[in-house]
């Protein structure tokens, strides 16, 4: 992790741990999903996604790596950040596949 992102990543992962603990207290199964934007893997998003995947593996948290699996197109987005109907369908399809595997493992 680049030095300029160290504090931001540490804070992010601490919040992930807090979300995980709150979810468990509610008898829920937390599942984290990486972020993606149409502008490509800008350095900040890429750094956070990489940290999340690594953190989830270390902590044995459930995580879906949407950013790695989505082969996005420009028409998947309205404005570079918010998905269009076509993009939402593609995202839902990818998440569904991984979510099904996680749910099968849990149940």
Observed structural traits:
107 residues; globular; 4 helices; mainly alpha; two-stranded parallel sheet
Please, could you describe this protein's structure?
- With 107 residues, the chain is mainly alpha-helical.
- The chain has four helices and two strands.
- It has helices at residues 3-25, 43-59, 66-69, 85-106, and strands at 31-33, 62-64.
- It starts with a helix and ends with a helix.
- The mean pLDDT is 89.
Helix-strand layout with pairing:
Elements: H1 3-25, E1 31-33, H2 43-59, E2 62-64, H3 66-69, H4 85-106
Parallel strand pairs: 1-2
The span between the termini is 35 Å
Strand order of the largest sheet: 1-2
Report helical residue fraction: 55-70%
**Helix/sheet category:** mainly alpha
Identify low-pLDDT runs. Answer: none
Summed up, what is this model?
With 107 residues, the protein is mainly alpha-helical.
């Amino acid at each position: 992790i680049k030095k300029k992102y160290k504090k931001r990543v540490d804070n992010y992962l601490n919040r992930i741990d807090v979300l995980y603990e709150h979810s468990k207290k509610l008898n829920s199964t937390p599942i984290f999903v990486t972020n993606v934007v149409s502008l490509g893997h800008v350095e900040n998003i890429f750094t956070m996604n990489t940290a999340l995947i690594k953190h989830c593996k270390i902590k044995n948290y459930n995580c879906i790596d949407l950013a790695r699996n989505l082969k996005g197109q420009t028409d998947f987005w309205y404005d570079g950040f918010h998905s269009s109907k076509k993009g939402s369908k593609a995202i839902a399809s990818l998440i569904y596949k991984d979510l099904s595997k996680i749910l099968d493992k849990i149940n």
